[in-house]
Amino acid sequence: MLEAHFRAVADEGDLPHHPSTTYPARTGVNVEAATLLRLAEHPRIVAVKEASANMDQIATILSERPADFSVLAGDDTWTFPMLAMGGDG
């Protein structure tokens, strides 16, 4: 259902979109890496704020994302480690 929701939002808007739901403590749900990587193929879904604190998930997203998809730290604590792994900010 999350994938369908984010696709519908991206389909209806004219602006680039970046889901910021990979923060289970705040949203109550984690967007799995496989789901996020499918969403990253949508032309208007251009980035994610990744704050799951799950380094395996972050590494998977960073290594398998499309070249034009940005991965941003959703929590200041994770900014440096994510940059070191190839994140974008």
Describe the structure.
- The chain is mainly alpha-helical and 89 residues long.
- Helices cover 43% and strands 9% of the residues.
- It contains five helices and two strands.
- The protein has helices at 2-12, 24-27, 33-39, 55-64, 79-84; strands spanning 47-50, 70-73.
- A two-stranded parallel sheet has the order 1-2.
- Strand 1 (47-50), helix 4 and strand 2 (70-73) form a beta-alpha-beta unit.
- Helix 1 packs parallel to helix 3 (33-39) and helix 3 runs parallel beside helix 4 (55-64).
- The longest helix is centred in the N-terminal third of the chain and has 11 residues, at 2-12.
- The radius of gyration is 12 Å and the shape is globular.
- The model has no long low-confidence stretch (mean pLDDT 88).
Tag the structure with descriptive keywords:
single chain, 89 residues, mainly alpha, two-stranded parallel sheet, 5 helices, globular
Q: Which geometry do the CA atoms define?
A: globular
- Spatial strand sequence of the major β-sheet: 1-2
Largest sheet: 2 strands, parallel
> What is the radius of gyration?
12 Å
Q: N- to C-terminal separation?
A: 28 Å
The arrangement of helices and strands along the chain is HHHEHEH
Give the strand tally.
2
What level of helicity do the residues show?
Answer: 40-55%
Give the percentage of residues in beta strands.
5-15%
Integer average pLDDT = 88
- Class per helix and strand makeup: mainly alpha
Poorly predicted parts: none
Describe the SSE topology:
Elements: H1 2-12, H2 24-27, H3 33-39, E1 47-50, H4 55-64, E2 70-73, H5 79-84
Parallel strand pairs: 1-2
Helix pairs in contact: 1-3, 3-4
